[in-house]
Amino acid sequence: MTLEQAPHLERRKDLERRAVIDVALTLAELDAAWGDYSYAIEHLDAANRLSGGSLAHRWSNRRRRWAYAARGYRD
């Protein structure tokens, strides 16, 4: 195992961190469902920071839609 892989594997084994990330993602989805896109983005960004940036790619489309909706644009 290289040194670059070690932090990634440690984050995956940290069950408390994973639970906090899941809560942040759930809050993001709830806020978006309620139309509060600014808070949804804040929760999504917090989850991404906690995950070490591993969520950015998978959630990029949803984040982009929420950012447009926060500015008043519709799909």
Quick overview of this protein structure:
The chain is an all-alpha fold and 75 residues long. It has one domain (5-70).
Can you describe what's shown?
There is one protein chain. By secondary structure, the protein is an all-alpha fold. It has one domain (5-70). Helix content is 71%, strand content 0%. The protein has four helices and no strands. α2 packs antiparallel against α3 (37-50).
Write the layout of secondary structure elements.
Elements: H1 5-13, H2 15-33, H3 37-50, H4 60-70
Helix pairs in contact: 2-3, 3-4
Keywords:
0% strand; mainly alpha; 71% helix; 4 helices; 75 residues
Q: What structural class do helix, strand and pairing data support?
A: mainly alpha
User: How many helical elements?
Assistant: 4
Gyration radius, in Å:
14 Å
Described by the principal axes of the CA atoms, the overall outline is elongated
User: How much is the average pLDDT?
Assistant: 87
Proportion of residues in helical segments: over 70%
Number of domains: 1
**Oligomerization status of the protein chains:** single chain
Measured distance between first and last alpha carbons: 45 Å
Largest sheet: none
